[in-house]
Amino acid sequence: MFIIMKLWKYILGALTFIGGLLVVNSSKKTKEIKKKVETNKKEIKQVKAKAKKVEAKKAETKKAIQNQDKKVAKTKSKVKKTTTAKKTTSDFKKKYKSKK
Q1: What is the C-alpha to C-alpha distance for residues 3 and 14, in angstroms, rounded to an integer?
Q2: Where are the alpha helices (H) located in the chain, listed in sequence order?
């Protein structure tokens, strides 16, 4: 009985030693994970800053495109349509060119 108790204590000690090693190993991994999380947060901040810059540029280009569209519309409204002139010239050609 006494030998069984001593053997049980040794087995229990070995198990606690292995458990302690696992705890130390997991704490090292958590430290590494925390470092990775911190670097990811820094990268996220950088990406968000770049995204803000891109959004600002996008707004500027959108305004520029709208201004350009307005200019094009104004110039188109000032220019006369040539469809009637083309029709009269084609009618003229049909009427007088064929009678040579």
Answers
A1: 17
A2: 2-78, 83-96
> What mean pLDDT is predicted for residues 58-69?
96
- Which of residues 80 and 100 earns the better pLDDT score? 80
Q: What are the structure tokens assigned to 23, written together?
A: 């705890």
Residue with structure tokens 């999380």?
A: 37
Structure tokens at 20: 């302690």
Calculate the alpha carbon distances from 40 to 26, 28, 46 in Å. 21, 19, 10
Q: How many angstroms separate the first and last alpha carbons of the chain?
A: 136
Q: Which residue has the tokens 């891109």?
A: 54
With left for phi above 0 and alpha for psi between -120 and 50, is residue 79 left, alpha or beta?
A: beta
pLDDT of residue 99: 56
Measured CA to CA, the distance from residue 83 to residue 88 in angstroms comes to 9
Question: What is the longest distance spanned by two Cα atoms in the chain?
Answer: 136
